Request: fold
Amino acid sequence: MEALAGEGEWVRKFQSGDAAAFGVIMNHYEPYILSLLTRLAGDRTRAEDLCQETFIKALKGLTSFRSDSSLKTWLFRIAHNTFTDHLRAEGPGTESLEARAEAGIQSAETAKDPQARMEESQVREAVETAMQILPQQQREVMHLFYWGELSVGEIAQAMRLPEGTVKTLLFRGRQALRGHVTGLLSEVTP
Amino acid sequence: MNCQKFLRILDERVNGEAPPQGWADHGATCPNCALALRLERTLRAAPSWAERPRMSSAARAAVLKRIQSAGLFWPRVVAMAEESAVRALVAAAVVFLSFAVLPRLWYTTVPEGFKKALSSYAGPLLEGFRGTLVQFQPLLHQNWGLLLLGVTLFMVIFAASLSTRVLRPGRT
Reply:
């Protein structure tokens, strides 16, 4: 992900009263934040609501933003917290994906040499589908690492997790994704 | 090279460093590892092929409308004041230390020869410092005098810092 050019300057402009500067910041980061939230929420409408909430929180927080962390890490952290609060408010039972993940791994184990005839678009489609089956934390870490191009350290900052935990989640996420993708592709190419 | 080792190296090659010998050969001959490698490459390329969604124009407008209605004036003033206060505190401490400590250090620790060599330059400056201190001396004998002096110094620097922040936001 490319950082916004002259990021610090835009932040200072906003802090000094230039409201349009926030529009520039939002315009740049909106696709990344909405992409993450769509991945996490699994529903575009809900993701848009969460994205809106994220930027409203950012709008208030940006007045006192210091450049201790990068703006993108800070925004991803707000998005992460917004989604976590939303999950908490919804209560337990919303994450029934682990069972589906198990099923994915089992079906993957039965797959035999499915890569021979597959197209790149099929792999991408399988990856997108498989990402939805991953448990929430793994999905978020995987998305931030591969789609958001954040480093392990930046993910740790955004999610307030130790770097070791991020590495473990990445490792498990990759393993699970391989299992799911193999399973999905074996269904496509029998 | 076995599959386990191949996948471990694939997972650890986060910075794109060169893999050991035999690694690529295994990837070319083992179908499962080839798939894992292909998947990793697809993931690495995700930013180039992934969809870049946008909020609806209504949702964007709702956020931007908040800028006007969210009452950002006071949070902005508070943030600016906080930042200026920290700067003013640091500056006040530096000024206080230079007034209180430097002349004492000059008279006690600097060797006489060095003092003589520098006296034509540093002498008038130190005399200036001392003159200023003398003016404030009666205040120090009053109750709360030192505190009052500190607060005055802080307020002067704070006002200067805040003015700079408001007038030249890009430079501070």
In short: The radius of gyration of chain A is 18 Å. Chain A has a mean pLDDT of 81.
